[in-house]
Amino acid sequence: MKQVGPFRLDTGEPSGAWTLVVSAAAILAAFVAAGGIFWAYGLNPIHAYAVIVHDTLLAPGAFPEIFRPTIPLLLAGVGLVLAFRAQFYNIGAEGQLLAGTVAATGVALFTPIRGPATLPAMFAAGFVAGALWGLLPSVLKLRLNVNEVITTLMMNYIALYFVSWLVTGPWKGPSVRGFAYTDQFPASAWLPLIPGTRIHWPTLVLGVVLAAAFAVLLARTRLGFAIRVQGENPEAARYVGIDALRTTLLVMLLSGGAAGLAGVGEVAGVHHKLLDPNQVSLGYGYTAIIVAWLARGKPLATLITATLFGLIYSSGDVMQVSLQMPFRVTSVFNGLILFFLIGSERLLAYRIRWAPAGAPASAPASAVAPSPPSGEDP
Amino acid sequence: MRWKVSRWLTAVVVIAVVLAFIPTGNAQQKLKVGFIYVGPIGDYGWTNAHDVARRMVEQQLPVETLYVESVPEGKVEPFIDRLVGQGAKVIFTTSFGFMDGTVAAAQRYPNVVFAHASGFKRARNLATYMADFYQVYYLNGLMAGALTKTNKVGYVGAFPIPEVKRHLDAYALGVRYVNPQATINVRWLQDWFSPPKAKEATQALIADGVDVFAFTEDSPTVIQESAKKNLLSFAHYSPMYKFAPKQVVSGELVHWETIYLDFLRKVLAGKYTADNLQDVDYWWLLAEKAVEVGAEPGMMINPLFVSRLKSTTVKTVEFGTLSVYDLVQRRIAQMSKNPVVFDPFAGPIQDRKGVVRVPAGHTMTVGELTSMEWAAPGVTGPWPGEP
């Protein structure tokens, strides 16, 4: 607690409203800073923002485009929220996503499963592949105490080169004239789109369902309780008899599996083939880390944060086309928004109260354990 | 109550100001042309060359251009949507990976003219175009064969795909025509733009004894790295003479503007419409001046190497014994005619396994060139997908 002039700073759990206020202020500050860049680039910032708002939200066909990157970010992000709640720092969503693309491609091109069973089989295979890809680092951590940040990250590169090897080697399609692609998936392996848009809705529905399911899992189930206790205090978890091995393995199966589903959506809903790993995913597995971080441990909040990123990506595209700005400037714009958003995390730990000297002090905020992952304890 | 009213007023004024800036119907009558690039315009290779051409087009024709750079393959369709939304009536997509997306967009926008570089799928409103280097690589090969002292020339290749294999084979045929003992040592990067990988590959080839370099990668890395050991090289795609004026012998230069200008003039004249492009395929070479032999524009051969090329002689059936310098000039003249008098891929040609790939009396067709997979004699190293 600290007195600054007539204000008192309390620490403690931020309220939902305070989180929104601080985040909105951060985004606004980012817009002001980015306005400086627009101005330096020779554009009127107000004009630039008007164009961005119009062409991102209002132009025909523009609005649905926000949700295309949202889908993989939502699936991978919601899985990461679960892992982070258990204090398992899964940096490997990218690799788990790519594992999902490989499994889905395998089912679509190299199994006899055809017809209405194809897509469910692809999703199932993608989930299993993502889960297994996440399993190895968790076993290493639990059995040998190997730092999972390193192993999950390194597994990304293995997945990346594995996909690269597949498309330049054994899975290279006979119909692609030597280029590094597989053949196109048969029609039964294409995800249906919402008419008039490019949103592969089954994956979006999966993402929303998963976000809700994980919220229920965390709040209402025995496993959820175990995850929360283990995440907030592993010693206490051990003391009350929570099986760390079982909890972590289940968490990573779900987390990796969710990222695997995101991968299935990308190949079955966007590309309809497997291709260069950097073209398949556009770094969704890494961006999902920020999506999960900003969701502050709440699976349902990923619905908002993933959409926010969809909006950021989409406005970057608009800047390139409508304002004819270079690709790099749009990256700077996106980076500024993130910089301010993540920078504002620290402010969330404080509550500002109007407390002029002499006024009766409110009850001191009781020591609340910070809910991971807050900005306190990386 | 009062302050609330004033707040509403402020909000209304702000919104009005914002709306005033929103671009409404465009008054300009110029034809809008969109370009979709796979890389950054500053890549010093493929995308840069297209962008240089775009700016020339904008200067020379009454058109307005728009571009988008670094477009991932999965996003070509949404970007086409946005360009059409901006009023683009002609759209060029400049990477093989954009093919299926462009085909789909061409169906969705039947009144927009599309052209796709390096692909093979066309439609009534979708043409294809390519400025190809195989003749130029052959000419570079003639020079490399004459200049190597170790009888090992190197090639740093991007991807083992037909386009790069065609260029490499043409280069190898040129090298071996002048120097039948030479080998062409190959390294693959699996990347179009990767200075670190190109550096590594160059060092490995230097360790193999290679003393002349050619490459397919969108940076001057191979030139810079080999120049450190004073080894010779051929520029690729952009004028790279300035990166090593004492080592760059010649190279491959592209002039995409020849194609863009020709295509857009025909669109402006009403000759090309969104209805008659089914058979429009630009496959433009030396004769159309879409490509050029040179270390930089106007410098066909670095003057430092002219005397060595003039003093090295080669026996030919057509011209008797002549210097490599003269041979290069003759071949350029032959390939600058339309139709050409000489083609590097005229039979008989065997591959490096001894299989006849081009029978005597046959010259490879465009279809055969764009799908070729075999390796020419003298090529040493891995060759994924070798038949």
Give a structural overview:
The complex is a heterodimer of chains A (378) and B (387). With 378 residues, chain A is mainly α. Chain A has a domain of 238 residues. Chain A is built from 16 helices and 3 strands. Chain A has a 3-stranded antiparallel beta sheet with strand order 1-2-3. In chain A, helix 4 crosses helix 13, helix 5 crosses helix 11 and helix 14 runs antiparallel to helix 15. The longest helix of chain A is centred in the C-terminal third of the chain and has 28 residues. Chain A is globular, with a radius of gyration of 22 Å. Chain B is built from 12 helices and 17 strands. Chain B is globular. A 7-stranded mixed beta sheet of chain B has the order 12-10-9-8-6-7-17, with helices on both faces. A 6-stranded parallel beta sheet of chain B has the order 2-1-3-4-5-11, with helices on both faces. In chain B, strands 13-14 form a two-stranded antiparallel sheet. Chain B is an alpha/beta fold. In chain B, helix 2 links the parallel strand 1 and strand 2. The longest helix of chain B is centred in the N-terminal third of the chain and has 20 residues. At the A-B interface, helix 2, helix 11 and helix 14 of A face helix 1, strand 2 and helix 3 of B.
